[in-house]
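[Solved] Which block belongs to which protein?

Original post:
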Amino acid sequence: MQNPVMTNPEIHLHKNDLPDGLVFQDAIAVDCEAMGLSHVRDRLCLVQLSGGDGVCHLVQIEIGQTEAPNLKRLFEDKAIVKIFHFARFDVMSLKHNLGIHTSPVFCTKIASKLVRTYTDHHGYKHVCRELAGVDISKEQQSSDWGQDELTEEQLVYAATDVLYLHEVRAKLIEMLAREGRTDLAQKCFDFLHTRTDLDILGWAEHDIFAHK
């Protein structure tokens, strides 16, 4: 039986940074929305996060903003794992736009590719359907995240992108251990900052390990 999608999650919208005094435990789920997929052209618009308790905090990033001290403090806290799906983009975006060196990281997309080798479907929608038992909508993915007032549909979509990551991560941790690939996954997660440095410097589409 599938779990119901959280159509009315508890959402808190903040401007420019997290408020002071928020406390999170050992892991938080994180996602980012931008104007597009080019870190050179497209600015970061929204950072969403959840502590796995059904509550989502959304932080709108304004044009030209280069710092978010509370986000930086949280995302660089070594005692708290940051869970992403396709961490490569989000880690790079946070680094490039806000100077945040996110660590430690768990990427559910990398983990999925390492252990769900029976499928080619590793998108968040497919992973959530199998591992969390929810069917989520990606309809708002390509909407305008740069507008001053986000729609109710955008807010719910943004929240949904982080509300199930704790459950997905737990299932993937079990699968990684079962297949003997936990250490390999961790090495991939550790490499993400080198990978995103290469992306930012212009080697996004070039395999520097290739012979040619």
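(Second protein starts here: sequence line, then its structure tokens.)
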Amino acid sequence: MKNFNYYLPTSIRYGWGRVNEIGKVTSRLGKKCLLVTVKPFPAMKPLFEKVITLCNEAGVEVIHFDGVIPNTTTDSINLASEMAIKNNIDVVLGVGGGSSIDTAKSIAVGATHEGDIWDYRLKQKRINSKKLLPIVTIPTTSGTGAEITSVAVIKNPKEKLKSVLADWSLCPKVSIVDPETTMTVPSYITASTGFDVFCHLFESYLNKFSTYIVDLIALDSIKMVIKHLPIAIEDSSNKEAREALSMTSTFGGICITNVGTTLFHAIGMSIGGNTSNIMHGEALAIMYPEINRWTWKHAAQKYATVGRLFNPNLINESDVVAAEQACIEIEKFIKKIGLWISLEDKNVSEGDLKKIGDDALEIPNYKFHPKVPNLEEINNLIRRSYKN
């Protein structure tokens, strides 16, 4: 068995009703908290108010930044960082989906480091872990795993480019993973974020630097996503399904924190950087069919293993047959959860395809793919994904 490293600095508090612990948790890290969320809306407003009340009761003053936008931008992060500095914030609390949590992580850097937040992407400038504000998270979607990862995805709207802040100090000190907070997520958002969970697990397993412990977590969690994501889409109030998705989302975050994603995410992030109307899960669903067909022969045993999770009848087939069939099984799953879409469906101009390909090379994840592509191969995959 090959050597591996494994590290998880985040304290995870998982289970129903655990959000009630937020005041006690936050008060141990600071006395003046910046709550980071989207604008309050009916489904989430009660949760935001509850969090504020619980923190206040624990002796924590709360300043609320509610300017989070999808695909976290440098502009919104810089604005929030100024608010944190002005109010002498000593702990940051991100409540919401991946964008809210990534914004919270970025504020922890922006409020304590000089210059624009974009300067710190991909470690171009060093993040000083001793200066960073402590981070607490409460995810309200089951998708990004950002509640425990060591990265924050950010977008520069001027350059139309997505990138990441990356440092172990970006792992939150505490993450409260309470499935109850996900019960009001609409079906399509459940599908998009849930497919991202599958992708984190699948790509961690596929990653050429994957490890035995990550493989164990990923494969068991993939089985749960296959079973429970369609149920949660059909019935948002199904507690068992919500529990499973909350758990597997966090497990996916554990996996990508330790080994990372692959080519799918490199192109998916590039799509998100170059467009404003495509959710991350949608971008991945668009790219998965073509990339799978291009990849499976270079990781046949792993594709075969995943194929058999979708279709147990493949146990009687050879790895080659099961691996090729895995591509079909994943496509059927994408259709089942309502994400069978193309770049054309999302009104992406064919003239933008080249820049999407060029920008994908800015995301190093593609180097972890079983077969490392060149720019021409990336561009071909994107072109073939333009139409279904």
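Accepted answer:
You had them paired correctly. Confirming on the second one: The first helix runs from residue 22 to 27.
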